[in-house]
Amino acid sequence: MLEIQNLHVRLEAEDKPILKGVDLNVAAGTVHAIMGPNGSGKSTLSYVLAGRDGYEVTDGTATLDGADLLAMEPEERAAAGLFLAFQYPVEIPGVGNMTFLRTAVNAQRKARGQEEMSAGEFLKVVRDRAGKLRIDADMLKRAVNVGFSGGEKKRNEILQMAMLEPKMCILDETDSGLDVDAMRLVSDGVNALRDAGRAFLVITHYQRLLDHIRPDVVHIMADGRIVKSGGPDLALEVERNGYADILAEAL
Amino acid sequence: MTVLDGGLQPEMRAGVDRETIETVQAMAGKYKYGWETDIEMDFAPKGLNEDIVRLISDKNGEPAWMLEWRLAAYRRWLRMEEPRWAMLKYPEIDYQDQFYHAKPKSMAGKPKSLDEVDPKLLATYARLGIPLKEQMVLAGVEGAGEPRRVAVDAVFDSVSVGTTFKAELAKAGVIFCAISEAVRDHPELVRKYLGSVVPQTDNFFATLNSAVFTDGSFVFIPAGVRCPMELSTYFRINAENTGQFERTLIIAEKGSYVSYLEGCTAPKRDTHQLHAAVVEIVILDDAEVKYSTVQNWYPGDEMGRGGIYNFVTKRADCRGARSKVMWTQVETGSAITWKYPSCILRGDDSQGEFYSIAIANNAQQADTGTKMVHLGKNTKSRIVSKGISAGRAQNTYRGLVSMHPKATNSRNYTQCDSLLIGQGCGAHTVPYIEVRNNSSRVEHEATTSKVDDEQLFYCRSRGMDEEEAVALVVNGFVKDVLQTLPMEFAMEAQALVAISLEGSVG
To answer: What is the helix (H) or strand (E) element at residue B308, kind and residue range?
Structure first.
């Protein structure tokens, strides 16, 4: 589904290479995890895939079901089925959470040539999915992420994902700042979306999220490259021994 | 009423979204109302002198007292200087190079009803989206209960062409007609109140208006009457080089209520057009008036060519105890906006509110705000101003809060927020505060922020395009004010916000 080949990316402002040849294949129906020390390029990878400004791709390709992601505007990537759950979701004062969701859902439907969702249907779906994430009516009415706790923001990201039904979901440190209960809620939300037509790329520092969202493949990223890939055991190894051995071995 | 929150008004929200987006896309940089109706016009000669004032008065069939009033204003105006204190830059206006009266020729015969009105005029309003004929039912707006209705008094250049719902309003004792008609049919009311809020001598533009006003609306709500429908005037400047000087007079007697909507559009012109209106509102004991404006006169092009010069004096006199006025304005148009809808809080316990959205894009300049003059005891005022600047535009909030010695225990709250889009624009806040007693309280809060790239990327990563993302963020910024508008106006205003900011990013 997601194919990344030899991806090189430079941070424009600092003229600094961040990604130095990333290769990654994520097949439909699978969950991949990316772990790695701070500054290894994990978040950069997620931003570049989503189309954020400030990064220059100097080499390599990234495709989603064969379509060239890097040639698309961020909204086109979204309509093509890519979703990024942000590590730090931004606040949008005055814009109701429900309004935001509905605008997003209908923008994507329009881009795909589908009918807009009727108000009644939308309400029904959003209430159902919000309920599963323990997001109450009040939180749907409040302005997007304004005054939300860390946990509420992350649950809200997962709600957006559940409403938009993307095929390629990238979760950027969704577990950061979550207590145990919130982590379970978020993980349950993610697991409920797992199916044969959908893939996940989970970026995390910690093994504990992967106890809840069981990955098929675990990658270790360091200095802008994926240096080691393996099964779920690899995450346990990191948890026990840290990155030092793996990095030493890779270099 | 919640306008923006899909949770409470999902159907409405869906309509707004679709309309906003489609309109933005359809327009592709064009001013939607920039066409001209091809109707033969009957002009008075260019320029201004006593003969022109007499001609205007004569064409309106006015009594002698009205002419004398105009002439007194004209003579006064000759001795006045154009004010230049506003933060506005524009070339000198040649007052002799304007037409002061233009009316469609087909009006010469004076239609008895709408059926006799030139179909081209009606077509003009249809293109503006104003349903002028009967059955102005806005389905489903309020959910349960009676559908809302709006009576429209349409002003086409200098002559009011038709007033709907007159009969039903008359039954309630409400008078809603062209002011030219009121001068003839209700001279006692006009003589009593005209110029009693905005005197002839008030300021350069108001005095000019007093001399040459051609038409406008007149509203009288008798004591104890709640006006059975919202009243609306749609102004439109059509003829080239014609100043439009409309004059509106609203009188709310004791215990009455009315909500009045004013919308403005003008076709596209390469030359600048002058517009100097006066609105006077008199509010007696326990009465309440809501006055909402959506102003989208032609703003000029990206280079600052053309566009309306809008110099407006609007003032409400809360004469009675416990009287109340609420101004809401959405100012998206005009090359120059000079406008300070004011509240004179004369009656004890009277209240004034001012809610404003002012958007300036490209080369537009806006210097707008309000005056809250507290004269009575326990008077309250509230100001919420949202200024948005984009392109090279300059947007100034100028507001006065004045607490007189006798206005004890009075309060004001002011909130001024500015939003900047891009690098080339400016926002300015100029508050004047005078407090001359010890028991009153004045609060002022001001913020300036920028549309944030992070917010836009967040929206786009969820599938919205850039225009949609900006419109969403900006509509969030102005939400507090949009909520004070009647529903149908709020929808139009929300669409206008998106249209006015088109091309401001990227």
So the answer is: strand B307-318
Contact A237, A246 (CB under 8 A): yes
Q: What is the pLDDT along chain B (506 residues), one digit of tens a residue?
A: 223 333 333 233 333 334 433 433 343 334 455 545 555 556 667 788 888 899 889 888 899 999 999 999 999 999 999 999 988 888 888 888 877 876 555 444 444 455 555 565 555 555 545 444 332 322 222 222 333 455 656 555 555 544 556 677 888 999 988 888 899 999 999 999 999 999 999 999 999 999 999 878 899 999 999 998 888 776 555 544 455 788 999 999 999 999 998 876 655 555 678 889 999 999 999 999 999 988 887 788 788 788 888 999 999 999 999 999 999 998 888 888 999 999 999 999 999 999 999 988 888 899 999 999 999 999 999 999 999 898 888 999 999 999 999 999 999 999 999 998 888 888 999 999 999 999 999 999 988 888 888 999 999 999 999 888 988 998 899 888 888 887 767 777 777 777 777 766 65
Write down the H helix ranges in A71-149. Answer: 74-80, 97-111, 119-132, 137-141
Contact B279, B291 (CB under 8 A): yes
In B, which residues are within 8 Å of A120 by CB distance? 10
DSSP string, B219-262: EEE-TT-B-SSEEEEEEE--STTB-B--EEEEEE-TT-EEEEEE
Asked if residues B177 and B217 have their Cβ atoms less than 8 Å apart, the reply is yes
Q: Do B5 and A98 touch (CB under 8 A)?
A: yes
DSSP 8-state class, residue A45 = H
Regarding an ipTM greater than 0.90, the answer is yes
Task: Point out which residues pair with B331 in neighbouring strands.
Answer: B295, B358
Classified as helix, coil or strand, B452 is coil
Put simply, whether A148 touches B (Cβ < 8 Å) is no
And the tokens for B454?
A: 């992070």
B312 bridge partner residues: B339
Contact B148, B230 (CB under 8 A): yes
User: Among A179, A189, A109, which residue's Cα sits nearest to residue B14?
Assistant: A109
Rounded-to-integer distance, Cα B224 and Cα B219, Å: 15
DSSP three-state, residue B181: helix
d(CA B63, CA B338) in angstroms, rounded, equals 32
> Which residue of B lies nearest to A117 if distances are taken between CA atoms?
B14
Across the interface, whether the CB atoms of A94 and B459 are under 8 A apart is answered: no
Q: Going by C-beta distance under 8 Å and a sequence separation of 6 or more, which residues neighbour residue B438?
A: none
CA dihedral B151, B155, B161, B165 (to 10 degrees): 10
> Contact B479/A92, CB-based, under 8 Å?
no
Cβ atoms < 10 Å from Cβ of B123: 11
CB nearest B7 (choices: A83, A120, A140):
A140
Residue type present at position B451: V
Please give the C-alpha separations between residue B257 and each of A127, B89, B168, B229, B230, in angstroms, as whole numbers: 40, 40, 16, 10, 10
Which residues of B are less than 8 Å from A89 in CB distance?
A: 458
| Cβ pair B457:A52 closer than 8 A | yes
